[in-house]
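Structure, all two chains, one model.
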Amino acid sequence: MKEKKILTQRVGRYEPLDFKAYEAGGGLAGLRRALDMGPESVIEQIKLSGLTGRGGAGFPTGLKWASTAGEKETPKYFICNADEGELGTFKDKVLLDGDPWAVLEGIIIGAYAIGAQLAYIYIKGGYEATVNLWEKLAAGAQKARLLGTNILGSKFSLQLQVVRGRGLYIAGEESALISSLEARRAMSRLKPPYPSQRGLFGKPTVVNNVETIANVPLILTKGTEEYRKLGTKADPGTRLFSLSGDIRQPGVYEVELGSGTLRELIDEFGKGTTGGRPIKAVQPGGGTSALLAGDSLDCCLTTGAIRKAGSSIGTAGVIVYEQGKSAVDIVKGLMDFYGLESCGRCAPCRIGVVRMKEIVERFSRGKGTIEDLEQLRQIGKACVVASTCGMGQAFPLPVLSALELFGEDFEAAIAKVSV
Amino acid sequence: MKKFEMEAYRNLVERSGGASSENLFTLLGKIQDTFGYVPREAVCDLAARTGFSEARIYGALVCYRDFIIRLEADG
């Protein structure tokens, strides 16, 4: 398996604020083509490219744009979701810091395609240097006439607001992000209506992940036919994998889906586990994806194959756990985080996450009971089916899969009753 | 971090082009970053400027980890 640097080809090759260097390196060709072909054709191209969301849900980008463009209500808004909060995921930061002009170009093209005149980029609060960089970048873009009125001499005008997140995981969920921008509590909303129909301030809104947006200029520059040569038929393009956990060489690696197995990805880029022990379990798609056992990593690296193996590719944040660690500890680490992050909008998640955290803690102290095992399963399943947003539907998955795969670890943590 | 002064606060609001529902979240963030917390005087003033109730603004502020509020005046 080889790295395929497409989105990351310019990362580290130019000074992030140097617009001229970006343009000299082939930048802006996508935006120029977009302005020539008109909004409808841009959306058509994105649809044909088969681009899907890179933020976890994997929704087809072209459909999202078409749905927003088709709404009569105005104004429309375009939001770049850079609130990268998922555990084990740090790929967007590479693009935001390393090739910000490409992300900005994608934002401008997206806003043009759906007819928005105001765009937002909502950056994770912890990425302070990134926020500062983007504030300077937005000012620089205004000078270079990439933002403001009559962009590149066209009739299209766009303003960009750089917004810093304020330390909430759930604000990365698109409807909670919208609430946050409206200066409300960051709480997810019931869908439908989808943001594409009624989003920011009740107006049609597109929310796209950074990596998704970075693909857009590329598609328009290369053409959909060339673009679709990357990856597989079902998963065109490349993916940025954030590799972390018990491995020697964590980092962000760009590969084509379908070009190898999950094990190859971990072995070749991760360079083995830190303790030299075999792999016990892997989360292939960020902290809310189900665990895969160490002996089922030979599945091909495609959305379909990983789903078949029992997990999902999600945000492509691959977290590796080596043997010698109890599944109870793995799950406790995750629940310590998610247990504090429910927005409280819906009961299953608000109550379930706390109860599951408590039970997992009990097991980690060796004080679990047989009833606890069943409780954990039932609460988890209830959250998955009854929660409003992606967080509540997904955070129980690692726990449920751990019970399934490593039940003996939990049984070992059941309190011994002396007779 | 600056000590909170009404004038410095007003300048900040002016530089941000006033206060509205569109920029309130960003503005609250700038106030937090400038003074280290969001003072009560600022919330009162922002409520008057935006037409939101103070409770509505506090309700949002307490939700976020990075916002610090103080109810009593600076002493």
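Strands of chain B lie at 38-39, 69-70.
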